[in-house]
Write a structure and sequence with these properties.
Distance between the termini: 19 Å
Shape: globular
Bound molecules: uridine-diphosphate-2(N-acetylglucosaminyl) butyric acid
Largest sheet: 4 strands, mixed
Radius of gyration: 21 Å
Oligomer: single chain
Strand content: 15-25%
Strand order of the largest sheet: 22-23-1-24
Helix content: 25-40%
Low-confidence stretches: 428-432
Length: 434
């Protein structure tokens, strides 16, 4: 168990490179279950969630070689016998549910533990299950497990959405299942997130027929088999966005390299509205921060809207804006667990339903705080970098799930952040989201 000790007030300067996208690599790893051939994934970040997904695949008979230093995963799933993904592995990470579609499509049977609760709110999988049923699968939920089987999946026309809009992993699951179905599947209201696009490109390289990639309507024509692939995942837009906000919140001047600025347009637009100067290059962003921020309103939405995964980080920045800002959370109405911890650092935030009203204060002050989810912990680190005095962020295993060596990389930009052993027990481990 580790914690971060941060001495705030250092201006970040220099360059930082972004790694491969966590939320791309996890479903792409599950796609390896769709073929007997080897799947090679490059630009794999060194994250706890990747290690967890490796274990899930191994429990399903996969042989996995993980060259962590080079960031390369080689996965071969030619033993089609195991179909059970157990609770002990599934409970640590939401993305493990992505094995359901590939198992059903290739092995015709799946017994997959429900992924469990999560501190960012209730995260149902009804849309995943409905999508599979519409492809012809029979599904039962028994003793915490989804038990699914099908003699052969069949293409259909379906609408895949909830009151919050599209579903990212639901789209990934149904698309993967449809690649080996008989006939054509049309998915209306498909998620348009860059990570879904990346997965679809991988499936195409494996021989899948998918039209409309990147749009809200995907048309998948089933094929009898898929083959191996060698693919480098896209840059992590949330990691890039977190570094952008880190530069801004410390009044810094940082170039974020090896990223895809087009995937971050909503963040760039909102930060410019707050007074941050951002220069956009083909694969980089340069952030030059003002002395004070203007208050802004932001609403999280499915892509290309403002990502919920950057809501907490932006809120940390708005705690010191010159006036009142509003943050409306439309994807996960309860994703405000960071608010109470930001209060401990002197922030003034009032929550009304799924909206946070933030009254900017001149400065945050360092305090001991506790991380309880991945993006919320990133926000606490950012707040600590900007605050006066010392901040300790406990339970940083949450942050290690999604950011590779963030402390080292921030240090290279001039931050005073140290990783130390902690005496707090890993209570919330099982309830991790992602
Ligand atoms: N929803 C349902 N039923 C479903 C599925 C989703 O009602 O069957 C609702 C959810 O409750 C939510 C909305 O639909 O209100 C969108 O959820 P979505 O399914 O898109 O989320 P997800 O696919 O489970 C991924 C990311 C999350 C990210 C969301 C939204 C991965 C591994 N996770 O989750 O990332 O917040 O999309 O963009 O890709 C993170 O990385 O920290 C993280 C939480």
């Amino acid at each position: 168990m580790d914690r971060f000790v941060i001495t705030g007030g250092q201006r970040l300067t220099g360059e930082v490179a972004v790694g491969g996208a966590k939320n791309s690599v996890l479903p792409i790893m599950a796609a390896a279950l769709l073929t007997d051939d080897e799947v090679v994934i490059r630009r794999v970040p060194r994250l706890r969630d990747v290690a967890s997904q490796v274990k899930v695949l191994q429990s399903l008979g996969a042989r996995v070689l993980h060259d962590e230093k080079q960031g390369i995963l080689r996965i071969r799933c030619d033993d089609a016998t195991p179909v059970t993904a157990p609770y002990e592995l599934m409970k640590t990470m939401r993305a493990s549910i992505c094995v359901l579609g590939p198992l059903l499509a290739k092995r015709k049977r799946a017994r997959v533990s429900m992924p469990g609760g999560c501190v960012i709110g209730v995260r149902p999988i009804d849309l995943h299950l409905r999508g599979m049923e519409q492809l012809g699968a029979t599904i039962e939920v028994k003793a915490g497990y989804v038990e699914a089987h099908a003699t052969q999946l069949r293409g259909t026309i379906q609408f895949l959405g909830s009151s919050a809009g599209s579903t990212v992993l639901g789209t990934a699951n149904v698309v993967m299942a449809a690649t080996l179905a008989d006939g054509e599947t049309i998915l209306e209201n498909a998620a348009q997130e860059p990570e879904v696009v990346d997965l679809c490109r991988v499936l195409q390289k494996m021989g899948a027929q998918i039209d409309g990639i990147g749009s809200h309507c995907l048309r998948i024509t089933g094929v009898p088999r898929l083959h191996g692939v060698d693919h480098a995942v896209i840059p992590d837009r949330i990691e890039a966005g977190t570094f952008v906000v880190a530069a801004a919140i410390t009044g810094g001047d940082v170039t974020v390299r090896d990223c895809e600025p087009r995937d971050l347009l909503a963040l760039i637009e909102r930060l410019r509205a707050a007074g941050v100067e951002i220069t956009v290059g083909p694969t980089w962003l340069r952030v030059a921060a003002p002395r004070r921020f203007r208050p802004i309103d932001v609403t999280t939405l499915p892509h290309p809207g403002f990502p919920t995964d950057l809501q907490a980080q932006l809120m940390a920045l708005l705690t010191t804006a010159d006036g009142i800002s509003m943050v409306h959370e439309r994807i996960y109405p309860d994703r405000f667990i960071h608010v109470a911890e930001l209060h401990r650092m002197g922030a003034r935030i009032r929550k009304e339903g799924a909206t946070a009203i933030i009254e900017g204060v001149p400065k945050l002050s360092g305090a001991p705080v506790m991380a309880s989810d991945l993006r919320g912990s990133a926000a606490l680190v950012l707040a600590g970098l900007a605050a006066e005095g010392e901040t300790t962020v406990d339970r940083v295993y949450h942050i290690d799930r999604g950011y590779e060596r963030i402390d080292e990389r921030l240090r290279r930009l001039g931050a005073r952040i140290e990783r130390r052993k902690s005496d707090v027990a890993p209570l919330a481990m099982a309830a991790a989201g992602g």
